[in-house]
Specification:
The protein is about 35% helix and about 25% strand. The chain is α+β, with helices and mostly antiparallel strands and about 425 residues long.
Length: about 425
């Protein structure tokens, strides 16, 4: 007896997932609740576990797009693992076996899978799409997958096999090939990348986005870090970085300019009396934005610990949906990649985002003298439908004041 393993519901708004990786291979013996595959949605990566112990029989291939409830694989009971050996030895003990054996080579020589296979000649969703786009009949393709299933690789090879015939019809004049490599590589967009692309375009089209700039003298914060970083790490077990100062400064400024912490819902303006700060983090599969809840009530040490924890989860693709939804304001740091200045795009449905940039020593005027200071450009992109120019500029100036005088962060003034 076998059990079908289907794609489980992973979120209210998620209708399909991509089978990103098989952790176990076809024919492997798996235990109850053991991870057998990884599924990727447009928001996060999920693990698919075995619902019973037995032998794994894969159906979907890596890269296939599967609807919620679609069958991913089957798990046969414990005796299934020995069945191939029993079938191989059966001709020795069965008097009728020679006739059956004689027919097997014919099926194999014909190049077609066995007729009684449930997957024989059936393309996977990804393979079917490729064949349809190229006008290739699935019956003309030999499947090398489980039980003769046509895999994505089979479809790509079938497509490539038709290309050599084109020169015979057109007979183009030979042209000398240009020097150097002319190769190209195509990859299917991940669900996460597709969703990010759609949301960014929607924000540009549906909001009145505008950006205002300022610059911050980072010397006071750098001096403070240099003086107390060792004691801070010894006491709290985490380093003292710039993100905690910026997060704290933002939460204080949001109290003075609540519109920056609000959003538009239909014909209503929604103002939040809390600050859930989204921190943009670069992950292996793309940009993700985990949220620090109630950052306005946290200390610098608590913020640093939260940032570190979320960054490690993002690196290992372990962030949950709850950890990436519900933010009220976003901070992104392009400076870690060397960005000098940029205009960040709002993270909808939020109304504003703060962009940090590279710290560069530049000559500035202080008290009538030219001095060298470590300066950073900061940018605030905001939705002009809810935030006026006075509020956006005032907010950014407030952030600048708090960063250039860190004592205000501790005293709340």
């Amino acid at each position: 007896m076998s059990l079908e393993i289907k794609v489980p519901p992973v979120g209210e708004s998620i209708t399909e997932v991509v089978l990103s990786r098989w952790v176990k291979n076809d024919g492997d013996v798996v235990e109850m609740d053991e991870v057998i595959a990884e599924l990727e949605s447009d928001k996060a990566t999920f693990e698919l576990t075995a619902e019973q112990a037995g032998t794994l029989k894969t159906i979907a291939a890596e890269g296939d797009t599967l609807a919620i409830g679609a069958v991913v694989c089957k798990i046969e009971d414990g005796g299934a693992a020995a069945s191939p050996k029993s079938e191989a030895e059966s001709p020795k003990s069965d008097a009728q076996a020679p006739a059956a054996v004689a027919e097997v080579p014919k099926t194999q020589d014909s190049g077609l899978p066995t007729k009684d296979s449930y997957a024989s000649g059936t393309p996977s969703p990804a393979a079917g799409k490729i064949l349809a786009e190229k006008g290739i009949d699935a019956a003309a393709v030999k499947g090398t997958g489980v039980d003769g299933r046509i895999t994505k690789d089979d479809a790509v090879k079938a497509e490539a096999g038709k290309k050599p015939e084109a020169p015979k019809a057109s007979a183009p004049v030979a042209v000398a090939a240009p020097a150097g490599s002319r190769g190209e590589r195509r990859e299917k967009m991940s669900p996460l990348r597709r969703t990010v692309a759609k949301r960014l375009v929607a924000v540009k089209n549906e909001t009145a986005m505008l950006t205002t700039f300022n610059e911050v003298n980072m010397k006071p914060i750098m001096d403070l870090r240099g003086k107390y970083k060792d004691q801070f790490k010894e006491k709290y077990g985490v380093g003292l970085g710039f993100m905690s100062f910026f997060t704290k400064a933002v939460t204080e400024a949001l109290k003075d300019f609540p519109a920056v912490n609000g959003r538009i819902e239909g014909e209503e303006l929604v103002y939040n009396d809390f600050a859930d700060i989204s921190i943009a983090v670069s992950a292996p599969k793309g940009l993700v934005v985990p949220v620090i809840r109630n950052a306005e009530s946290m200390s610098l040490a608590q913020i640093e610990k939260s940032v570190l924890e979320l960054a490690l989860k993002a690196r290992d693709s372990k962030l949950t949906l709850e950890e990436m939804t519900g933010g009220t304001f976003t901070i992104t740091n392009g400076g870690v990649f060397g960005s000098m200045m940029s205009t960040p795009i709002i993270n909808a449905p939020q109304s504003a985002i703060l962009g940090m940039h590279n710290i560069v020593e530049r000559p500035v005027a202080e008290k009538g003298e030219v001095v060298i200071r470590p300066m950073m450009y900061v940018a605030l992109s905001y939705d002009h439908r809810i935030i006026d120019g006075r509020e956006s500029v005032g907010f950014l100036v407030r952030v600048k004041q708090l960063l250039e005088d860190p004592a205000r962060l501790l005293l709340g003034i």
